[in-house]
Amino acid sequence: MQSFIGGSIRLGQRHGFYSWSGAHFKANRAYLATNNSSSLIHGSDNSINSSRNHLLQSLGTRLGSQTKELMLPGCSGGCSMPGLSQLAAMMSTCSSRSMTTAASPTPDSSQSVTDVPPRIKFKRLDKTAKHIMQILDKEAVEEVKAQREIPDIKPGNIVQLRVEVPENKRRVSTIKGIVIARRNAGLNTTFRLRRMVAGVGVESLFPLYSPNIKEIKVLDKKTVRRAKLYYLRDKMNALR
Amino acid sequence: MAASFASKCSRVGRSLLGGLGNNLSGLQSASNEVVGNNVWSQQQRTFIQMRTVLKVVDNSGAKKVMCIQALKGKKGARLGDTIVASVKEAMPNGKVKKGKVVYGVVVRAAMQRGRCDGSEVKFDDNAVVLVDKQGQPIGTRVFGPVPHELRNKKHVKILTLAKHIA
């Protein structure tokens, strides 16, 4: 909790301490209600000016997701990323609405208002807070997608995976089967694979964005008229 | 009303809770639910408990055993657990005879078992490998696939005998 406050204070420096305190306290009443937070704010007053220059250099001029990612290495240990992203989202809305009185770089905030990447729409603060989890989820998904190439997996296509099983001494095994179901849940999107192993049917459920899945290759597509092919369990399709 | 809501819960939570949603679903004693009975519920596979008939997949002589007791777990045995079973059907000349009380290790279960990386695995049938009190398999061969879970339960001998590790 304390480290989160520390990170939030550094973000506050970005837009001027005065505007931050006004808007931030209102919005995050729950976070800053404890006694610890008030003492921490007073205690870090000394470090504000010293860290300010460092902060301005490291943060760069653009707001949005880039700031969030840059903030991560500068942040004290223990800060969770969702908390930071949320704060950065709130910070940018604060800056767009309120006037900064401290000597923070105002060209940055004005630039940020116009140049915010369009994929995150910032509404009013409380409106953003309602679906903040959805925004975070989408960001996480895009991050994984940028890192690895994940093809579109629909039920009915035959897929070959290269999975690294942690229980098997990190040995990469290839699994080939037909996708019988896909459940969309943001980062936790899972799909079920059905295959015949040595005469016995085995169904496995995998998270699509799992780092254990090294490679996915779509081999074939079967035309199906259903999203969940559970009827295949009774059909006992031979040879896979 | 409550039953339909509960079975809706079971459908949603089935993969998430990994079978522990048994209490929520309200289908406590049924291990196989007939599909088409209720349009919202899938087949909710549950634990291996008393009176569950399992297939034997080694060459110890037995063909089918019935579970008498699941040694660990209040609700029943899962994949990788040991059970006490009674031999119901056996080959004429084998190491175990009909009516004998034996221990077994569940190597295939129709109930899904979650792994630590978030994936789950489930088989199409329930199968067991007979072991003695120390945990050493009685037979000398194991047929069909066995899961990785046996490695954590220290059933390394069964893993080495198996031809395929799912």
TrEMBL record, chain A:
SUPFAM superfamilies: Translation proteins SH3-like domain (SSF50104). GO terms for biological process: translation. Keywords: Ribonucleoprotein, Ribosomal protein. This is 50S ribosomal protein L19, chloroplastic isoform X2. It comes from the Eukaryota. Belongs to the bacterial ribosomal protein bL19 family. The keyword Ribosomal protein applies. GO terms for cellular component: ribonucleoprotein complex; ribosome. InterPro entries: Ribosomal_bL19, Ribosomal_bL19_sf, Translation_prot_SH3-like_sf. The keyword Ribonucleoprotein applies. GO terms for molecular function: structural constituent of ribosome. Pfam families: Ribosomal_L19.
UniProtKB/TrEMBL annotation, chain B:
GO terms for biological process: translation. Pfam families: Ribosomal_L14 (PF00238). The keyword Ribonucleoprotein applies. One of its GO terms (molecular function) is structural constituent of ribosome. The keyword Nucleotidyltransferase does not apply. InterPro entries: Ribosomal_uL14 (IPR000218), Ribosomal_uL14_bac-type (IPR005745), Ribosomal_uL14_CS (IPR019972), Ribosomal_uL14_sf (IPR036853). Belongs to the universal ribosomal protein uL14 family. This is Ribosomal protein L14p/L23e family protein isoform 1. It comes from Theobroma cacao (Cacao).
